[in-house]
Design a protein that fits this description.
The complex is a heterodimer of chains A (about 425) and B (about 190). The N and C termini of chain A lie far apart (about 80 Å). Helices cover about 5% and strands about 50% of the residues of chain A. Chain A has a 6-stranded antiparallel sheet, with no helix packed on it. In chain A, a hairpin with a 2-residue loop joins strand 7 and strand 8. By secondary structure, chain A is mainly β. Chain B is mostly beta strands. Chain B has one domain: Porin (Beta Barrel), CATH 2.40.160.20. In chain B, a hairpin with a 3-residue loop joins strand 1 and strand 2. The two termini of chain B are about 30 Å apart. The chains are: A mainly beta (about 425), B mainly beta (about 190). The interface between A and B is large, with 55 and 45 residues. Strand 1 of chain A pairs antiparallel with strand 8 of chain B.
């Protein structure tokens, strides 16, 4: 009996001791990470504007949006400007010029006119001769949301033209043991890359953009999206865009704009919005479709909208899929089917062929004649794809390591015809 | 990790050699314990089995277990005990070994990640206990100890910036806990 009493007493003692002592001890958690931060290089507004012209071609380093117009590809170099690529022979594209536009993220083209953002300004260039682009107009301050951020404010006399990279390793102790980290982009980039679509237009040919576009042109209007608004510019006189209107979409996370006939499809992180532009100066909401929080480029045809949802540090969420929506006269879009993907980004459709950039899973090409049963025709792996324009039997793909062109004139023999590599500078 | 394992094996051999030198009667013993593990993060459970030899006042064995505290791990360790008191029922013990990660994903300390890789590290546990003889060579035992398990994880976060390198975060966890064990000895 005595030994059992001893056991009970011992057990009681150790339990009390454990409870008491466990409240006194602390976990020791450290986090080490290396990040790059960038400090700005300034030039005066005069110096910058004097250099907005066709300069000598530069290597592609950090590609963003693309627009295809005639025989030329205009490729955004994020925050730096626009590469002009002569694509008369897709098997051998020639990088012929670079237009220096600091802070440039988006672009749209119509006829001989190029519209591009320069941080908070819109710059209009005459590109009748792509080797001699000439600035025609600055619309100043029309993109106020394009602030530098991170404590950098736009000085009206100076513009940031470059960033100098610094690497830093930090080791920090995490108190409490349960602190959450939110991965951040630790450099002073203004925003993430994104790109423009095309529609049924009259007059001068309009550049065909990708599904990641934030600028697009329909007839005589240039539409751009900010985080929450649609901006309307009247470009009846191409070299003299006039800021006309601003329409609040009711979402704070707009990412893309895609035109189809007299409709605009707006992709936001929490849904897709369809606007009628039958009155071109006053886009009117026709319908919307909400989805989980995610990045979501969108394209459309007469009957369906194709929305890719992806996760990522900026996109949040954990959804990676393609959603196909039946448009039902554009007022009551309904989900038809969802397909799983790895990390789908931009997409494009030409006839029944659906092209999807699936991040590190490469480019996937589907037969979409039956949207309820997409058939994979071809997959190009080993490239990390971002955006695609499929037009005139050539799929132009922006990838992490270059600009690729695929010939899909024969669906049974879709093949790579050329690649412009990216410099590792 | 190889160095840690070699250290464990050498230590185990030395203890066994020391045991044989004692020229005492040697008995096989199996110690099987359930544990509550409590520290700053939370309280969770663990289980371990230690099998080895008892000689005089000493016990030495090899143990393996499952430790659910914060990140599930599989500790592999050597165990040494010294029994004291008139009836040799009190004991102090020490465990040292390697902690193999069983968890395959980061926890809530990361909001979003795209890759991860866990690696193990040192496991230790030192404490004091008491055993109550039950029947023949079997006993019930209780112990209270201080345990530390360490592990590391490398977490990658892909940047949305095309062409940018992913961000890598290296976490080192030194998880300090009180460990309260109850079990049976055969």
């Amino acid at each position: 009996m005595k030994k059992y009493l001893t056991a009970v007493a011992t057990l009681f003692f150790v339990i009390i001791s454990a409870i008491f002592l466990s409240s006194c001890i602390k976990d020791n958690i450290t986090r080490t990470y290396t990040y790059s931060y960038y400090l700005p290089v300034y030039k005066t507004t005069g110096e910058v504007r004097a250099n907005i012209k066709s300069n000598a071609p530069q290597e592609v380093v950090n590609p963003g949006k693309i627009v295809l117009l005639g025989n030329y590809i205009f490729l955004n170099e994020i925050d730096k400007g626009i590469h002009v690529i002569d694509n008369r022979n897709p098997a051998s594209p020639q990088n012929i010029a670079f237009i220096n536009i600091p802070g440039n993220m988006d672009l749209a083209l119509k006829g001989n006119t190029l519209y591009a953002d320069l941080y908070t300004d819109l710059v209009t260039l005459d590109i009748s001769n792509p080797l001699n682009a000439i600035v025609k107009k600055y619309n100043e301050g029309v993109f106020p949301f394009r602030s530098y951020g991170y404590g950098f404010y736009n000085d009206s006399t100076k513009i940031i033209t470059d960033w100098i990279k610094h690497d830093t390793t930090i080791t920090e102790k995490i108190e409490g043991g349960n602190s959450t980290i939110y991965p951040q982009v630790y450099y002073m980039n203004v925003s993430a890359p994104s790109s423009s679509g095309s529609a049924n237009n009259s007059g001068s040919p309009i550049g065909k953009g990708g599904s990641m576009a934030r600028f697009t042109i329909v007839n005589k209007r240039l539409y751009t999206v900010s985080n929450s608004d649609i901006n309307v510019f009247n470009i009846t006189i191409p070299n003299n865009p006039v800021y006309n209107n601003n329409v609040n979409v009711g979402s704070w996370s707009i990412e893309t704009i895609f035109p189809f006939k007299d409709k605009l499809f707006i992709g936001s992180q929490n849904g897709m919005f369809i606007y009628s532009i039958s009155n071109p100066d006053n886009p009117a909401l026709l319908g919307q479709f909400e989805h989980v929080r995610s990045c979501d480029p969108v394209i459309a045809d007469d009957d369906y909208a194709y929305v890719t949802l992806r996760s990522g540090s900026a996109c949040q969420g954990f959804t990676n899929q393609l959603e196909i929506l039946q448009l039902n006269n554009f007022t009551n879009a309904q989900l038809v089917k969802t397909y799983s993907f790895s990390n789908p980004h931009g997409l494009s459709k030409d006839g029944n062929l659906l092209f999807i950039c699936d991040g590190s899973d490469g480019l996937k090409i589907y037969n979409a004649s039956d949207v309820s049963n997409l058939q994979l025709i071809k997959q190009f792996s080993n490239i990390e794809t971002y955006d695609v324009i499929a037009f005139n039997n050539i799929a132009l793909v922006v990838a992490k390591d270059g600009l690729y062109q695929y010939d899909y004139s024969d669906v049974n023999n879709i093949h790579l015809v050329s690649k412009i590599g990216i410099s590792n500078k | 990790m190889k160095k840690d394992l070699i250290f464990i094996l050498i230590s185990s051999c030395l203890i066994s050699f020391s045991a044989s030198a004692q020229k005492n009667k040697i008995h096989f013993r199996s110690i099987n314990q359930f544990a509550m593990v409590g520290g700053e993060s939370h309280i969770n459970t663990a289980f371990q089995t230690v099998n080895g030899i008892k000689f005089s006042n000493w016990f030495s064995g090899i143990g393996i277990g499952v430790d659910n505290y914060r990140y599930k791990t599989l500790p592999l360790f050597i165990d040494g005990r010294w029994y004291f008191g008139d009836d040799k029922n009190g004991f102090i013990y020490g465990d040292i070994g390697y902690n193999f990660p069983m968890k395959d994903k980061p926890g809530k300390e990361v909001y979003y990640y795209s890759s991860y890789h866990f690696t193990g590290s040192i496991y230790t546990d030192f404490g004091i206990g008491y055993q109550v003889p039950l029947y023949k060579k079997s006993s019930m035992l209780f112990s209270l100890g201080y345990s530390s398990k360490q592990l590391q994880t490398k977490i990658g976060v892909v940047s949305e910036c095309l062409g940018c390198q992913p961000y890598l975060y290296n976490y080192k966890f030194g998880l300090e806990r009180m460990i309260l064990k109850a079990g049976l000895v055969f």
